[in-house]
Amino acid sequence: LPEERPPVWKLFLYAVQQVIVMFPATVLVALITGFQVSTTVFASGLATVCFIFITGKKVPLYYGSSFAYLTAVASLMSTEAIMAKLSPAALAQLELWQSGAISVLPPEAISYAQFGIIMSGFVSIAAGLLIKFFGVKAVEKILPPSITGSIAMIIGLTLAGNALSDAAPNMAQMQAGTGWAVWVVSLATLLSTVLFSRYLKGIWGQLPLLLGAAVGCVLAGIILGIGGEEYSLFRTIDKSLLLSASPAHTANGIIAVPAFTFPKASAAAVVAIMPIAIATIPESTAHMYQLDIYVKDVADKKGKKMKYNMINKLWINLVGDGVCDMISGVVGGPAGTNYGENISTMAITKVFSTSVLLLAGILAMVISFFTPLIQGIYAIPLAVIGGLEIYLFGAIAAQGIAIMIDKKVDMFSAKNIAVIASIMVIGIGGNYAFGGNIPFFGLDVPCIAGAAIFGIFLNLILSIGDKSRKAKKEKAVEA
């Protein structure tokens, strides 16, 4: 449970498992946005540690880089307002990044994006304070379980394509005849993880993802040993992504100080990035509903008499999210949110200890300074990651269903069906038809944000007259 702390050796293994789970998505955001990988990993760890203390060590969530901001950052880098502020050398590096010739944005460009990320934190903080003063009941009118459950489902299902593309061989591997190795490793990882979570007991039953990843890596190593380099599934990371801002420490050594940059004021960055924070609020709310259900379940099974109402901590969760955006923005990391992958890991393993998340954050910071550690975790074959993702992303979607079952959502209600149907189709359809961003009157709206906003408005419209209908129903029952 959140306040319980496992023995040190268990604590370490649980934390490593959480780091492995968050690592692929957090690094992928850095790779797509052009932020430094080591800095991004450090920022996620630092923000997680701060989040745990901000929430009084009562909310077990891991803060990682958010995909919701990808388009905003990319579009910002193409604006005249930013390009005009860059030095000639930085502008030349930005143009190389835009052409795909290099993988990292110039530090000057990242500094302007940082300002927008810091300002976006105020949106989450304001939302949290509103909930504190007006109560969770007010939030549930805007974000009822039919919406939060649906959002949780589309978060998992929109990532289904990523899971399968990581778990399946690509065309080059198929043509080279090495595609079978990818399938063997990804399926072995998936099946072993599922079997471990189902049949192992005690400490081992709480480490299925770590053990599943180990099985996949060992199998990939055996295939490499038998088939040679042609069959290698292990990855290498471009060292330019690990270069430090300090000339004294580079990626050629064991220690590479993360490339910390500092924010520079930009109105364009605020306009581009700050509004995206609105999209993370329904997502974060859905995560709290997920936690609420599963923490209560563990408490019931352990015979704990105290009530665990995680949803009552929604306000401090949002405040923590906002402060963490600021912390990440100050050191040079992308904007983020709490991670569904880590929640799924906790739901699967039944380990919700905040001490585990605290240590995971510390480990992430340590790893960011050691080039071999980052390279070692990054080297985990994509097939192994894909096998884990199939389970994790599916579990996120399943938790959305659990929210609606637990809150007894009426699935025969015309209003609920309309809201759920709209959210599901806009969220999933937007991902597969438009690649994640729906073109809407000249704007690129992230599909999850668009689905959530549409669902909220539709639910509010369809709720008109609910009180009168409820009163008539109560009178009929009394009669």
Task: Describe this protein's structure.
This protein has 479 residues and is mostly helical. Helices cover 70% and strands 3% of the residues. It contains 23 helices and four strands. The strands form two sheets. Strands 1-2 form a two-stranded antiparallel ribbon. Strands 3-4 form a two-stranded antiparallel ribbon. A hairpin with a 2-residue loop joins strand 3 (437-440) and strand 4. Helix 3 packs antiparallel against helix 14 (267-273), helix 11 (179-199) packs antiparallel against helix 13 (208-227) and helix 15 crosses helix 22. The longest helix is centred in the first third of the chain and has 28 residues, at 107-134. It is globular. The N and C termini lie far apart (47 Å). The relative contact order is 0.21. Mean pLDDT is 82; it is low at 244-251.
Notable features of this structure?
479 residues; mainly alpha; two-stranded antiparallel sheet; 3% strand; globular
The proportion of residues in beta strands is: under 5%
**Overall shape:** globular
**Could you describe the largest sheet, including whether it forms a barrel?**
2 strands, antiparallel
Helicity level: 55-70%
Question: How many β-strand stretches?
Answer: 4
Q: Termini, distance in Å?
A: 47 Å
Task: Indicate the structural class.
Answer: mainly alpha
Order of helices and strands: HHEHHHHHHHHHHHHHHEHHHHHEEHH
Rg over C-alpha atoms, rounded to the nearest angstrom:
23 Å
How would you write the strand order of the largest sheet? 1-2
Low-confidence stretches: 244-251
Overall average residue pLDDT: 82
Give the helix tally. Answer: 23
